[in-house]
Amino acid sequence: xxxxxxxxxxxxxxKTNVLANDNISFELKQGxxxxxxxxxxxxxxxxxxxLMGLLRPSSGEIYLYGKDVVANPDIIPPVVSYxxxxxxxxxxxxxxxxxxxxxxxxxxxxxxxxKQGLELIEEFGLEEISSRILGxxxxxxxxxxxxxxxxxxxxxxxxxxxxxxxxxxAYRKKLWQKLQEINIQEGVSIILVTHNVTEAExxxxxxxxxxxxxxxxxxxxxELKEKIARDVRLEIIFKPDSIDEETQEELxxxxxxxxVKKINPEHWMLHVPxxxxxxxxxxxxxxxxxxNLHDFRILMPNLEDVYLELGGGKRLAKTG
Length: 320
Fold this sequence. Notes:
Layout: E1 4-13, E2 18-28, E3 33-37, H1 44-51, E4 59-64, E5 67-68, E6 80-83, H2 95-105, H3 110-123, H4 139-151, E7 157-161, H5 169-186, E8 189-193, H6 197-200, E9 206-211, E10 214-220, H7 221-228, E11 231-238, H8 245-255, E12 259-264, E13 267-273, H9 277-288, E14 293-299, H10 303-309
Parallel strand pairs: 3-8, 3-9, 6-7, 7-8
Antiparallel strand pairs: 1-2, 1-4, 4-5, 9-10, 11-13, 11-14, 12-13
Helix pairs in contact: 2-3, 7-10
């Protein structure tokens, strides 16, 4: 049985006549980590809020472990934990108070909720802010506490809306590692929205890309990369003062043809089809010379390439 099954989901805001979700169908399998990607305003948060029973669809069906969520949203809280972008309901509480109350509402005793809250605070090195008011935290601190709140009582399904926004690189790494840990060790099924596509690729098992409320691609990460991102990128960085800029341009124009982009006077990016990659590597070495290269990298297609090729970096013009 799938964790979530969504069929032909439509959400239209009647007052503004905005079609936020347009006929979305989706399945979350047990143990999956699914990423929903898309530009701002694409309908991602609206979709998550319907999965949580916080918004009622205009039409369509949502099933959680085979049970109808639209008809009975009360089945969601015992099994699904939700990290929203801002936990406004708890803003006036101290961090540890918010932990204790959240855990208690999920069925834990207050003592166990406080204990688990303190363990999470220690794990993420947040002891200094444990007694501070939630609403007075910085954006990054609040996001980390929100993540810890979502982990309380270890529910089998976790839904996260922009979990890494405003968080510095060291903490982002910890957060991604924690998601992998609870997925592998505890079997937690995860749905998340993120703009940190490159980092998320290391964690995600499947992905959907949404624009104007419509899913433009969905599937296994590796399958999408193979299907859509066909080019290999060659990153070429010249040693300073090795070859003048005019000669560099001539080399790429005449001897190393391809879709080339100059990043700066010494840094170039060459896009080539996979089947021609080895020939281009040899051409770079032969024409430029290893002695003139500060760095030379072969970059295989990644999830960000897929995302950008499908318009993930911007809201596409609406068609139809």
